[in-house]
Amino acid sequence: MSVYTHLVEAEKNGAELRFNEKVLHWEARSAGEGVTVITENGRFEAGKLIITAGPWSSQLLKNVGLENNLEVERQIMMFFEPIGGIEPFRVGNFPIYVWDSDDYTQLYGFPSSGLRGEGAKVAFFRKGGIRCTPETIDRNVYEEEVNRLRHYLD
Ligand SMILES: Cc1cc2nc3c(=O)[nH]c(=O)nc-3n(C[C@H](O)[C@H](O)[C@H](O)COP(=O)(O)OP(=O)(O)OC[C@H]3O[C@@H](n4cnc5c(N)ncnc54)[C@H](O)[C@@H]3O)c2cc1C
Hints:
FAD/NAD(P)-binding domain; 17% helix; D-Amino Acid Oxidase, Chain A, domain 2
């Protein structure tokens, strides 16, 4: 919802939104003279460039030698179906939280907004992340990982 709101506000303020268009390359012109961006669909000139490619950012920072400044880790989150029903976990009834458990493991979650079905989100806060890239990440979630998280909910 907040991403959507930002997009709407950006468009109201003159931004042209372009989706599903991969940036292939960019380069800065001489100092202060802006940038050229090459995408799958064309070539764009701009005064400034802001790169917000998340875990793919390394690929777009290679030409300025910053590709090794970012480390990407696999992190997982889960949505649990509460035994007593979702109502106490809905927005308005339940907080955004970070919980420090007795063994110093941190867990966090959000109230249910109904956007992802009726689950309550629970996740480890940056625990045990394996280094990867968006191409090599293991996108499976394993039973053993579910059990490890469930242990803190019991
Ligand atoms: C496990 C996990 C759970 C999270 N849960 C929440 C949550 O519940 N609530 C919350 O508010 N935040 C959550 N976050 C944080 C949130 O996901 C990030 O803060 C947010 O996604 C960062 O947004 P971003 O736009 O910077 O990057 P991203 O969301 O990673 O977006 C990067 C975009 O760049 C695009 N891109 C990449 N390369 C190119 C290219 N060459 N050309 C064009 N486009 C390209 C990608 O397709 C992608 O759309 C979570 C993060 C993790 C890891």
